[in-house]
Amino acid sequence: MAGAEVLQLTRRQMVQLTGLGAAAIGLMLSIPAIGFLLSPLVQKTRETWVRVGAVPDLTVDQPKPVTVKVPSGEAYDTTPVDRIAYLVRKSDGATLVLTNTCSHMQCDVHFDPTLQQFLCPCHGGLYDVHGNNIGGPPPSPLPQWVHRFEQDSQTGQTILFIKNAYDESI
Amino acid sequence: MLRFAARPLARRFRSGYRWVDERAGTTDLVHKGLYEAVPDRGAWAYTLGSATLILIVLQFFTGIFLLLTYVPSFSSAWDSLRFLQTSDRFGNWVRGMHLWSAYVLILVIGLHMLRTFLSASYKRPRELNWVSGGMLFFLVLGLAITGAMLPMDNAGYWTTVVVTNIPHYLPFIGDPIRTLWRGGDFVGPITLTRTFAIHIWVLPFLLLALIGAHLYLLRRHGEFGAWVNYSTTTDDPDREIAERIRRAEPPYPTLRIERQYAAPRKTVDFFPNQLFKDTVVSIVLVAIIFVFGFIAGAPLDARADPATLTYVPTPEWFYLPLDQLLVLTPQTYLIAFGVFLLIGLGSLALILLPFYDRSPARRPLSRPEVLVPGLFLAFMVVILAVLGVNRLYGL
To answer: What is the distance, to the nearest Å, from the Cα of residue B329 to the centroid of all Cα atoms in its chain?
Structure first.
């Protein structure tokens, strides 16, 4: 004897029951799947400090690129990869630690000494020596690396540390 | 069994085929496939659909073969393709064919759409053919761009960075979309795995489903185009149309709208007339891919370098107009407007074409209300492409 006939279900009840069953299966499948899919939204980047070293001699308003091995910290990736920090001495003595990540589409910008501007090769974004966006599509200045300076008590040098994070989200 | 084995070979094959045919209905199937009435006029233009199908099959074929070596890993993807380039001549050839058939596919699918647009084949009752075809076009573009990201050379890496960053400019949901695609705030190992999964499972799965729907609808409504497509020539249109339909096969549309009818003036059987032309076009296209895949191959830049100060990222040629649009829409709100509103509305207008072009008119010149905007759109895309070429390569 078939199950539905034993239970004395009408066709309408049977359809409703099947629909409920399908919904239950769908729910059980989608809770873990959708949670898995959305998990990057709640995961935190692992932030670590990296010792860059002594700040080199800088000329005012002459950005100097320094290559730093920085772990990306995304997901399981902890391999340090080469990244660029542009050190810029301002006339008031402060030092900027700019990333070379364009605020438009995150391409790598580079400093052009003849133009005295940062150029983005992707869509022609322009920044002045302090990283302020002055032309092309970029909506905001170049972000800086999160950084701190420490005075080495023995040598008297200024040591730069950067975190694998930007000070502005772009 | 003994009696079967004792028969001559040809007879054994024949009786073997009869056994299969009786159970699977193969002869019926082949006849259904081959003896369909198709319009005699414009037969070469009608080869573009089958060429698209052949090229997609070629993409599946070469793509599956690439999986024999390619590793979807942030650290190893480039090495695996570098290995193909330096040590596996045939593997590199397959990769070249995968790339070139993608290029040819985009061109052919564009021509196929253009042909359908000009001949107004999307009119009742074939609106859904157009809708599914339009979706297939966008799926192919999605496959092309995700495929371009996979090699993890400089070109692939910066394509990944820029393309996954585009959603950032969508209000509210943009950043979550970017994070979900990248598997984090920035491009990282999960970005590649997710893009790979999209490229080899999600999009091909949708592609196959839509191809099924597209072909089913094609066979359902026949090759004759819309109900409003064809006019009669004699004084007795009812007899003329009846004669045509008698020669063709059902279920071709037979509805009469004013004095215009559904059947073309002259039809031929799909086999051998159309099949011959389809085959010629497909052989030529596959031969081009075969040769270009070997001679030109697929490029592989230096390993992805997030610290480059010299690399100039350039988009794939079919995304150049979109890339130029990014250049021309500075500042945040304009990017949202330029990219999403313009592209979104343009795509929607393309897909929904049959729902606002509903007149019985079929000739391009008698449909200025869609021809003019269509040409304008095509003109804008060309202008953007020219501007982009000028910006990147300096004309």
So the answer is: 29
- B307-342 pLDDT tens trace: 999 999 999 999 999 999 888 877 666 677 777 888
Residues of chain B with pLDDT under 50: 250-251, 253-254
- Measured between beta carbons, the chain A residues lying within 8 angstroms of B332 are 139
Q: Specify the CATH number of the domain B38-229+264-316.
A: 1.20.810.10
Beta-carbon contacts of residue B307 (< 8 Å; ≥ 6 apart): A67, A81, A82, A83, A84, A100, A108
Contact status of B182 with chain A (Cβ, < 8 Å): yes
Residue B217 backbone dihedrals phi, psi, to 5 degrees:
-65, -35
CB pairs under 8 A between A and B: 96
Q: Give the strands of the sheet with A158-166, arranged side by side.
A: A49-54, A158-166, A145-151
Q: How big is chain B by its Cα radius of gyration, in Å?
A: 25
Say if A83 is an interface residue toward chain B (CB within 8 Å).
yes
Range of the domain at A120: 49-166
| pTM assigned to the model | 0.90
Torsion of CA B7, B13, B15, B16, to 10 degrees: 120
ipTM of the shown complex: 0.91
